[in-house]
Design a protein that fits this description.
single chain; mainly beta; eleven-stranded parallel beta sheet; ten-stranded parallel beta sheet; 39 strands; 31% strand
Length: 506
């Protein structure tokens, strides 16, 4: 079912409440209602507020303009799966979605370029739209008509689908709106029946963002989320650090773009195209300034939407590209230990989902900051010799400026921000069915790690800061072992429970 926006305004200051609940029978019917409450809270040191959201489809445009807000799926078994050609969502899923895009004016659009029911009603009575959609780029805070725009630091989300349905299907609210095509630059008249997926065709494809981190919106985390769009799906501005932990990012043209410093860790990079042979994917359009770290894709998988499930297309995607620099010379995108699946598209059966040239320079020029290291081709091909000559193939995990390829080197900034170890530690523990905490102790001194209070057969796993399993062994007694200097996550599994401990060795 679809949850509609209701305008909730709170005029007086509210006491700090760490958790707010959204759902049909909860304190707030909409996410916007909960956000308005957070805006009016008295929060010492901007204490974090978690908004727990019942599973369902929320047709809302969100502006995150208060710091340290978490949107979290409240389902016991949360999901981020799409169904029915991308129109529907799985049980246990939370989807935040809207439908504005480049090429149309909307009767429902108010002057801040967000949806408003009263504006829609009045404009229908008057027979004309009251505000022109200026949704190209960052104009008036639209950020390519983004469903969610993040302005504040510390935004986090867990098991949330962020979608712009513009190139996915006609949503219920779009079917009730009135759209007027631009005089030029419009893909043309759109269908008006809810659930229609013909807008997935290449002829309709245009700019329509799902989530955007505005310039200076720092320390964002998407934990096991899904971002859904086609062209320009996921934007991050300057002075902006984002970590995407697992989950999926779906799109086609330049769909992860902007000047942000971002780490995508074990994330599915999903090509979302139609069956037109010319509809190709460019995963990235990076636009970093001089001396700014760019996009790091660490242990990610390049894959395709599943026909009939995530898309109305008959076939999986044909080969596309790692991307194209949006700014010459300084743009940076690093693909580290990437697994690339094989295409099943007619004429490309068994071929890599990345074209042999890898990169194109058709947007902003060339940049040697387009890196590749440790690629695994499930097609069995070796296309490295055919890569664009201006891109950089690495034979060691070190960038041209001597920087080692680690997540920390992309997130640290000036304050040492390092969220990935906690995400990994919490995930490692969480996957063990929330077992009790073991009494086994873990500590480190110099280059030695000590495991004590072992009372039963105990399994020890050692993970690097980037989540790679480096060592595993079993012990029945207290033990110790050496680790080279670094930051590690030690996972312990014993009869009385589990534990994940972060340690530093010197």
């Amino acid at each position: 079912s679809t949850t509609y926006i209701t305008n909730i305004r709170t005029s007086q200051a509210l006491a700090y409440t760490p958790v707010l609940q959204v759902g049909p029978d909860k304190d707030f019917l909409t996410i916007n209602g909960a956000l308005e409450a957070v805006r009016n809270m008295t929060r010492e040191d901007d204490a974090r507020v978690t908004i727990m959201i019942d599973p369902g489809n929320y047709e809302e445009m969100l502006v995150i303009d208060v710091p340290n807000v978490t949107l979290k799926n409240a389902a016991a078994n949360p999901s981020i799966d799409l169904l029915n050609s991308g129109v529907d969502i799985a049980e246990g899923a939370v989807r935040v979605t809207s439908y504005y895009g480049h090429g149309y004016h909307y009767y429902s659009m108010k002057d801040d370029q967000t949806w408003d029911g009263e504006v829609l009603r009045v404009n229908k009575e008057n027979g004309y739209y009251s505000y022109e959609n200026k949704g190209a780029g960052t104009t008036n805070g639209s950020y390519w008509n983004s469903t969610v725009v993040v302005y504040a630091d510390g935004f986090q989300a867990e098991y949330i689908i962020f979608e712009n349905s513009y190139n996915q299907y006609i949503s219920q609210k779009e079917s009730e709106d009135v759209l007027v095509t631009w005089a030029s630059g419009s893909p043309g008249d759109r269908p008006t029946d809810a659930g229609n997926t013909s807008v997935q065709l290449r002829s309709f494809k245009e700019r329509a963002c799902a989530i955007a981190f505005a310039n200076g919106a720092d320390k964002g985390i998407l934990n096991k989320c899904r971002v859904v769009g086609r062209q320009d799906s996921f934007f991050g501005g300057t002075e902006c650090r984002v970590v995407v932990y697992k989950g999926a990012a779906m799109g086609s043209v330049d769909y992860i773009f902007g000047g942000m410093s971002a780490v995508f860790y074990k994330t599915e990079l999903v090509m979302n195209t139609d069956d037109d042979n010319n509809d190709r994917t460019y995963i990235t359009a990076a636009q970093q300034a001089e001396g700014v770290r760019g996009f790091l894709f660490y242990d990610c998988t390049v894959t395709s939407t599943t026909p009939g499930i995530e898309t109305a297309s008959q076939y999986k995607s044909k080969p596309g590209y790692f991307g194209r620099p949006w700014q010459a010379t300084t743009s940076e995108a690093v693909f580290y230990n990437t697994t690339i699946e094989a295409s099943e598209f007619p004429g490309y059966e068994g071929k890599s989902l990345i074209e042999p040239i890898g990169w194109l320079n058709t947007l902003g020029g060339e940049s040697s900051g387009m890196y590749e290291y440790g690629t695994v081709e499930l097609s069995g091909e070796d296309n490295l010799a055919s890569r664009a000559g201006w891109s950089t193939l690495l034979d060691a995990p070190t960038l041209n400026d001597g920087t080692e390829i680690t997540a920390f080197n992309f997130t640290k900034g000036d304050d040492g921000w390092d969220p990935l170890p906690d995400l990994i530690a919490n995930d490692v523990t969480g996957t063990r069915n929330q077992q009790p905490l073991t009494a086994v102790e873990v500590r480190a001194f110099d280059d030695q790690v000590f495991i004590t209070n072992v009372q039963s057969e105990t399994n020890i796993q050692v993970y690097s800061i980037n989540g790679r399993l480096l060592k595993t062994f079993e012990t029945f007694t207290d033990t110790d072992f050496h680790l080279r200097p670094g930051f590690w996550v030690i996972y312990v599994e014993a009869e009385d429970g589990v534990k994940a401990v972060k340690v530093i060795t010197h």
